[in-house]
């Protein structure tokens, strides 16, 4: 018997596809339209390392969203996108100002500092959002050889706390950073959710607002894998191709990253997915807001709900639905919605919260 067709080696489903939780939008599978695009790109041979037709066409799609000078550099994942982008924006003695809650500071295992070789200068924020005044707490000492030089301000849109910068807020930060000779990086792992929340094109709060480089997310918005560094201001970076390769983010079969981003961005799939996940988060927040003992911690502006409830209730709920504690000591939890979250999923979870709180 051919081993490839043996029942011992045949692929089989190991999970219940009807089960969904609220732990992370990374838990969701790939959107069917993305899977169809991958299959379309799979036939025959294409030149490796980004010289393929799909990566070439992606550049046109990216310029349509982020301006005529924009160029996309597909990478494997979000941490890779951030590390590549920040290296390209900084000198060896450079530092990056970011919110204390920023993903690059909290959730990337020190990769920007250990792999990128740069210093993070963090600022506490009440809602995950930087302001010019908060930035100024770290924006000093450019001529002090004893201090890492602030060269970049890194924003996250939407933030790790589910809040969304307005267009005016980002423009004010970009103007302020540029006046100090600093560049602006935007971590857009969930940029589609922010655009859906603001009901504006992504260009409105990126190239039009003064952002220099963007980490463009795909995985959380329905891709199987893959993100991209989008260089909006070519004068802000150096040697992007070399930095991407040195950082182990150059995909040999890049067409399979590029075609997913093309599938999301060439029409409105990115926006449909983001609007739906945002709507499900709003439905969830509305459902639990009236439950005695449940507190919504931050404005629900994208696809995340942060709540506080008794610790023992969360532990019981986690036996039914997957989700994470945000601050376990305080009883804070995070509930995330995805492009495939259904109204029935939300309503079932709300009912479970009500039942457990009643106990």
Question: What characteristics describe this protein?
Answer:
359 residues; alpha/beta; 4-stranded antiparallel sheet
Give a short synopsis of this structure.
36% of the residues lie in helices and 15% in strands. The protein has 359 residues and is of the alpha/beta class.
Please tell me about this protein's structure:
The protein is of the alpha/beta class and 359 residues long. The chain contains 13 helices and eleven strands. It has helices spanning 32-41, 53-66, 78-89, 103-106, 111-114, 132-135, 167-179, 191-198, 240-246, 255-265, 269-289, 311-317, 343-358, and strands at 71-75, 94-99, 119-123, 149-156, 183-188, 213-216, 227-231, 295-296, 304-308, 324-327, 332-336. The strands form two sheets. The protein has a seven-stranded mixed beta sheet with strand order 1-7-6-5-4-2-3, with helices on both faces. Helix 1 (32-41) packs across helix 10 (255-265), helix 8 (191-198) crosses helix 11 and helix 11 (269-289) runs parallel beside helix 13 (343-358). It is globular. The N and C termini lie far apart (57 Å).
Helices and strands, with pairings:
Blueprint: H1 32-41, H2 53-66, E1 71-75, H3 78-89, E2 94-99, H4 103-106, H5 111-114, E3 119-123, H6 132-135, E4 149-156, H7 167-179, E5 183-188, H8 191-198, E6 213-216, E7 227-231, H9 240-246, H10 255-265, H11 269-289, E8 295-296, E9 304-308, H12 311-317, E10 324-327, E11 332-336, H13 343-358
Parallel strand pairs: 2-3, 2-4, 4-5, 5-6
Antiparallel strand pairs: 1-7, 6-7, 8-9, 9-11, 10-11
